[in-house]
Amino acid sequence: MSATSYSGVLSQTKLLGSNLNCSTHRRFPTSCRLSEGSLDLEKSTSRVFLSSCSSTSDKRNGMLGRSHHCSTIEKRNPVGQTFCSLGVCTHSRVDVESNSHATEERVGVLLLNLGGPDTLDDVQPFLFNLFADPDIIRLPRLFRFLQKPLAKLISVFRAPKSKEGYASIGGGSPLRKITDEQADALKMALEAKNMPVNVYVGMRYWYPFTEEAIQQIKRDRITRLVVLPLYPQFSISTTGSSIRVMQNIFREDAYLSRLPVSIIKSWYQREGYIKSMADLIEKELTIFSKPEEVMIFFSAHGVPVSYVENAGDPYKDQMEECIYLIMQELKARGTFNEHTLAFQSRVGPVQWLKPYTDEVLVELGQKGVKSLLAVPVSFVSEHIETLEEIDMEYKELALESGIENWGRVPALGCTSSFIMDLADAVIEALPSATAMSTSRNTSEAVDQDPMRYVIKMFFGSILAFVLLLSPKMLVAFRNKLF
Ligand SMILES: C=CC1=C(C)c2cc3[nH]c(cc4nc(cc5[nH]c(cc1n2)c(C)c5CCC(=O)O)C(CCC(=O)O)=C4C)c(C)c3C=C
Ligand SMILES: [Fe+2]
């Protein structure tokens, strides 16, 4: 549920039409002229004036005192002079209510993340949730009814290996704790910028689930919501999946479907993020005896190739651009190290994005690279793939392959420059919040036709039988590819 949920009340005095051009897209339905999180002021013809007052009492921290303050954000069209200004004023509630436009505004920020098992007993059910996600195992529509049985099978097969991994990092995932800390830090950063908000944490595959966070948002009568996935780059399998869950819930609910929402789909290109990453890399390089000789080795979580080539996942492009921007920033600071990008954590019998981290490490060792700095780049908190896969498996492989000096950049976590930048991203996204699309897509309508459903099940069963007994699947299970 909410990591940082307090009864902050924001009274908005004015909100003049945020007339952003939003279109409905089949897979990523909310595609606003929001240029991935930052308001595209040059194109925008809207003028948004948001003056907010707060009257807060923090239940969590047991604060009894109430404070009243007011923040102003102004965004104007290209002919206007003021693009973004934050001002602070103080006035009483009566003043607010005397305004004819007065409505009570409660701003929420929903942090989306993957979630991870808290204990070893959670591992198999967590894996089940993950593999039951049609954005993780993308079965053809005809096979969709197989999703859950397949998820059960794969999760049971994979659980022992995953459990070993989680056991080696302390018996569970640190994700919940770190995400809660990030939520607290973000709330404080926003308060420091005179933007009191409730921050909620919604995990995709484990507690606190996205569904719970959304229920809490509803209970708190949030009136404007910014959705901030904690993945810098967009992938269908991560941000896309969480947004799909959100949209399904929002569509069915009268209150939520009218709630103005702004989704920050990716933010890898933000200056604050790039600079924070460059800071961490620079700092870690100084630990090596010859920093200039260190190969900067970006290791990103992979996705199956089909996501990029068939489904149009922008993940690979965004990842490459992200690395380019980080390297440009380092060059601007006088750091000219060589670098490379590889993809880790592949699962199952399909082709994943290449080159693979393990193969590149061996090649680099063979080529005579002696010093290497691993940089996890697809995620902003420590998790099993940094603490176990990189710090243990890949480090061992690198040292065996001839690399002598190994280092690893920590995940950003609660690095203050990073959190401040996320806070800015939220503030910039807020004025463009619009109600989510409520239209049902046609393929879902087909699922509601009983005759079509029976036909689909009949042919699907035959195909499923063939698929499950296909040599590829049998080999995958036998070779423990899951
Ligand atoms: C940008 C980050 C991630 C992408 C893209 C991603 C895609 C993806 N992942 C799997 C399968 C698994 N992922 C697992 C854990 C896991 N994945 C991410 C991030 C991305 N996944 C994180 C942060 C974590 C760790 C959570 C934690 O508990 O610390 C797991 C479980 C662990 C294991 O058994 O290895 C699986 C399985 C697929 C199939 C996929 C794309 C289709
Ligand atoms: Fe993953």
TrEMBL record:
InterPro entries xref list: Ferrochelatase, Ferrochelatase_AS, Ferrochelatase_C, Ferrochelatase_N
GO CC annotation: chloroplast; mitochondrion
EC number, as in UniProt: 4.98.1.1
Origin organism lineage: Eukaryota, Viridiplantae, Streptophyta, Embryophyta, Tracheophyta
Catalytic reaction annotation: heme b + 2 H(+) = protoporphyrin IX + Fe(2+)
UniProt-listed PANTHER family: FERROCHELATASE, FERROCHELATASE-1, CHLOROPLASTIC_MITOCHONDRIAL
Name the UniProt record assigns to this protein: Ferrochelatase
MF term (GO), any: ferrochelatase activity
